[in-house]
Amino acid sequence: MRPLDPRLLRYASAARGTLAAGGLLALVQTAAGLAFAWLVTQLIVRAIAGDGLAALSGLIASLVLVVLGRGVVLWAMEAVAARGGARVVGQLRERLMSAVAALGPGWTASRSSADVALVAGRGMDALDGYFGKYLPQLILTAVATPILVVVIGWQDLTSGIIIVLTLPLIPLFMVLVGWATQAAQKRQWKALSTLSRGFLDVVGGLSTLKLFGRQHRQEARIRSVSEDYRVHTMKVLRISFLSGFVLELAASLSVALVAVTIGLRLVAGDMELSVGLFVLLLAPEAFLPLRNVGASYHAAAEGIEAADNAFAVIEEAEALRPATTGTTRTMAAPRPASVADGRTALVFEEVSVAYDGRAVVGPFTAAVPSGALAVLSAPSGAGKSSLVAAALGFVPAEGTVTVAGRADADGRRAGIAWAGQRPGLNAGTIADNIALGDPHPDRTAIIDALHDAAAGELDPDAPLHQGGSGLSGGQAQRVAVARALYRLRTRRCPVLILDEPTSALDAATESALLASLRRIADAGTAVLVVSHRAAVVAAADLILEPEATNRVR
User: Fold this and answer.
1) How far apart are CA 154 and CA 160, in angstroms?
2) What are the pLDDT digits (tens) for 339-365?
3) Residue 313, SS3 per DSSP
């Protein structure tokens, strides 16, 4: 990420207000610094000239007010940076999680969950250093440094020329050190990602390792990865200390050069004391913001690396959106007759899905009316799950998918309650998994959802381990169906999509679940079930076949 990446302003609107407030406070801080230098100069010069305390009392009072004002402005800058940073981090984290949801299960399955959690958790938290330390100094540099250089040049052209010539040395050293820091930070982040993935893998497979008595063999691996992370972290810290020394040395030598020239001209009588003292007080202030930018870069380096990763995920989701909401068609075809009746909740129009340039399914055209139980039936590998993913906006697709009149991916997802083939269950209770994402769970709706999912025998308060450990395959599948039914009722979704909901169920339980789906469809919901089981196909009002003409019963 660049010092101020435009993507930050695009993906986190709160950053604009933070920058505007920071710029205004930086301007006030610069004015206070100029006032401080001028007042101190006047006090010293007039005291040397013989003015008494009474004559200087006005200047002393003004100086006290300026010092207090500078303190208040410094506090305000830190407060604005902290609060603005918290809002920006919250917005960016929300945008990141929305992007992960938009990319869907297929994308998350191809990524390590530890990497995603690392970016969304520690990575976003590390941006506090960027907003709390780095960005305020960057704004102050952009505002204060040009003003101070102009004022110094106006008062003493020689000192102004020296500062203009020596000031670029600090950015030069910053760039050189920044390259080294960036490379070291990337290695540290990679080591941290490896440590996170390794630890998660060990924890996830701990029961299997203990079963075969191999749990102790992982200690050496975790210890080795932890040591690697420690080494890379110490390298980053070492570069940080060295860069701070280099920047301090460059700034000190530059200020010393200005001070020597001023001293020589004062001795020679070529400069007035008031001008020399005023310029001498301002010279360090001209170098200070830029020096602090370089020093605080290291505090923000981890957050900058995490922000780059977050932006990559968000941009990948944005690149997917036009493809999933487009209207490109590969061939003309008549619209289904049911589209025009006003009751259709789910419509596929010439939908095609391809992976890596290879067509998987399509073009597929079908409509599921409200109140119908439709079954998407085809042999394994025919692209049934790909069509569901296209409806949810999880994969790039040609054609148009409309849910309750909405063709955009976000609108479609808001109108669909769904459960996939693989139940994604978390540690917690069954009720927690059913009401996932609901800040105010409805206990009655949870119990009703379990009953309608043919899982009434399960205790909502029963604890589950990560991945649904503690339930059989069929029970986990029904809990996932109950979660979809809970969403269907609490959010009043017009469409319910279930992908192979009965694949792990016995005949009696399957029959009970199909009876519930029939009642849900009769209540006005468009129900689409992906399955090739005979009992499910027999219960359907409408059979959709990607490779054949759709049949209505």
Assistant:
1) 8
2) 334 467 888 888 888 876 677 787 888
3) helix
